[in-house]
Amino acid sequence: MVTATPPRIGVLALQGDVREHVQVLRGLGAEAVPVRRPDDLAAVAGLVIPGGESSVIDKLSRTFGLREPIRAAIAAGLPVYGTCAGLIMLADRIVDGIDGQQTFGGLDITVRRNAFGGQVFSFEADLTVPELGDPPVHAVFIRAPIVERVGPGVQTLAALPDGTVVGVRAGNLIGTSFHPEMNGETRFHRLLLEMARGR
Ligand code: GLN
Fold it and tell me: Could you confirm whether domain 8-198 is CATH 3.40.50.880?
């Protein structure tokens, strides 16, 4: 019998809900490690970019010399899953960013930050995600972005009843506006693990 070594998945640990993602990944049998330096990044087969505050993650990634290594890893096909602020970091274009805010890019999408209004505005919704099958995804939105434009070659994974796109995938990149790591939803992380194992 062949025993597969569990893939080592990094969680970008500059700011945001790092611990929750580490717990989900460990629960799925992966080795989960925080990524704070380029060396950490070089040692992982997949990466989660957590929710938090995208403008802070952007600034700290430059301060810690991680911006260019992450961009290079994305270009080389590293599987990456971004939630909320993480989705913003994966977008090629951003609307309503702070002055000078940059993203890593990789997904040919336009995201709008804080798209549902005031800083504290949060809500939950059950979403049908055909890629994941039954049951629907119970999605928690916290000061969430939306995907305003989806380029050719980007698949919509999840949308609100009014058609607003809140989950996308292209190649080895997945992004959701919501936070599966907060309520025991593990299927997006499973997808990431499958992509990491396939490499
Ligand atoms: N509003 C935050 C941002 O702009 C994202 C919120 C979140 O990650 N829950 O980065």
Answer: yes
